[in-house]
Structure formats: C-alpha cells, structure tokens
Design a protein that fits this description.
This protein is an alpha/beta fold. It has one domain: 3-Layer(aba) Sandwich (Rossmann fold). The protein contains 8 helices and 7 strands, in the order βαβαβαβαβαβαααβ. It has a 7-stranded parallel β-sheet, sandwiched between helices. Helix 1 runs parallel beside helix 2, helix 3 runs parallel beside helix 4 and helix 4 packs parallel to helix 5. The longest helix has 22 residues. The chain is globular and about 45 Å long.
C-alpha cells in the first residue's frame, strides 16, 4: 500500500472550484500505480467533473483499460488539458468539453458530442458536484441551495435522460454519491441532501433500466483529497481533513478508480442498484 499523506495538512485555501497543482500535497490519480488489463477495451465513456480529483483518476483508469474518454468540466482549463494528456498518452481518444452542467441544453450537447466524436456512449459517469460549507441554515441563500441541486442532481437527470437512448445492452451508468448520503454532515446540508437524492435516483434508475440491459450503480466516497476540499472547507476542517475515519487520513482519487472500473466492466453484468462505499473504514448504513 502506498504511504499516503495524513493530517495535519497546510491550510492553504483556494477559490472555487480549485486547481490540482496548487494543492499541498498534490493528489494521486494513479499516474504511476494504475495498471490496466483491457477490461473496457473499445468502450466509450463520458465523465463529468473529469478534469481533476476522482474524475481524473477514473478517466486515467478507463483509458488504461482501453476506453476512449470524454471529460466534461466547468472552467478549469489547465486541469482539463492535463487529463487530456494522460488519456492520449495511453493511445486513447480524449474529448474535452467545457461548460456548465446546470444548463439542461448543455447536458444534452455533452452526450451528443460524445456520441458524434467518439462513436457512441457505453459508460456515463455522473461525477461533477458542487458543495459549500455553512454553520447555520440561515447562511444558505436560496441561490446556493438551488445551484447545489442543479449541479448535483438535476444535471444527473438531464445527462442520463440524454444518454440512455444511445446506450446498448451492457452499458453502464455510475453515479458519485457520498458517505453523506447516509451520514449527512450538517455543515454540508445542501450537498448532503443532494447526495441522498442521488442514491435514491440510482436505486430507482437501476430498476427502470433493467429491461433495457443498462446497469446503474453508485460509488459513495468518504473524505477524498481533491481540489473541492481546499476550495470549500474552513481552514480547521481542511487542516484535519480525513482524520475522522478509521484510517485517519483522506483517500486519494487513485483509491476509488477500481470501484468505477468494476461498475463499468461488462463482466459485472449482475451488479445494478448497488452503492459501493469507499470510506476509509467508516461504515455506511
């Protein structure tokens, strides 16, 4: 097992949505550790939030497993180009798509461009998310609450609805839920509420799509060291991030990649409606 960093960390805040290279320590996405074995050979994947963090680790793993990958991102051009380079280094096609998934028409365009430029869509990873920390409900503006739902759950619906007509039997949808789906952090009230919705959306979707031969599952990460953390957490929480779980540290994006590969793998043909916990030893109920 790699000797991953443990808290305390330097409390270096970033503006939202955060950048990878500005983090200390820089996250591990599996650049030197993930070894593919052709499990996704010839498949086409669209990953939202694919520029950094969990999304980058999944994009790299999928490329090393033989998939062509489209990554959707908001505005982090430097991170997106770095992920593109990782995908192309594996000899796979990379499609980099910028824009705001709060917009339903943009979500539909993401799917259409993936289908057009990669030749189809076999895997949809709904991973992009927005979060912000508040100590009191009165601090949460109506606009903040609504934006969290638009990014985290409404976009998931728009993207899935657009992707399903293009998907063949054996295709897979993987949604990023959270440990907050079952153990909500009160300081992340809006975010945690959407993550609970994602888990229910996934469970219902799996049943709805079963007759089409399309699987839907979720991954529930615990504390993971991504740009979202220094750009959204108060300094004290940032300094001790991950200390609360049994492993006493945050997970690295690379440590989630195998869960997303397993759920996308056509050999996992009887796995649907599941939530895979990647939480550093903290159970979810």
């Amino acid at each position: 097992m790699p000797d991953y960093p443990t808290p305390p960390f330097s409390a270096e805040k970033q503006p939202m949505p955060g950048l990878t290279q500005a983090m200390n320590p820089v996250p591990d996405h599996g650049e030197t550790s993930y070894v593919g074995s052709g499990r996704l050979k010839g498949l086409k994947a669209l990953i939202t939030g694919g520029d950094s963090g969990i999304g980058r680790a999944v994009a790299l793993a999928y490329a090393r497993e033989g998939a062509d990958v489209a990554i959707a991102y908001l505005s982090e051009d430097e991170d997106a180009e770095a992920t593109r380079a990782l995908i192309e280094k594996e000899g796979r096609k990379a499609l980099v798509l910028k824009g705001d998934i709060q917009d339903a028409s943009h979500c539909r365009d993401l799917v259409e461009r993936t289908v057009r430029d990669l030749g189809g869509i076999d895997i949809l990873v709904n991973n992009a998310a927005h979060q912000a920390t508040f100590s009191d409900i009165g601090e949460i503006s109506d606009e903040e609450w609504e934006m969290t739902f638009r990014v985290n759950i409404h976009a998931m619906f728009y993207l899935t609805k657009a992707a399903v007509p293009h998907m063949k039997p054996g295709s897979a949808i993987v949604n990023t839920a959270s440990i907050n789906s079952d153990n909500p952090n009160p300081s992340l009230l809006a975010y945690a509420t959407t993550k609970g919705a994602i888990q229910n959306f996934t469970a219902g979707l799996a049943q709805m799509l079963a007759e089409k031969g399309i699987r839907a599952n979720a991954v529930a990460p615990g504390p993971i060291w991504t740009p979202l953390i220094p750009s959204t957490m108060p300094e004290e929480q940032l300094r001790n991030f991950g200390k609360q779980v049994p492993m006493k540290r945050p997970g690295q994006p690379a440590e989630l990649a195998t869960a997303y590969v397993m759920l996308a793998d056509p050999l996992s043909s009887y796995v649907s409606g599941a939530t895979i916990a990647v939480t550093g030893g903290k159970p979810i109920l």
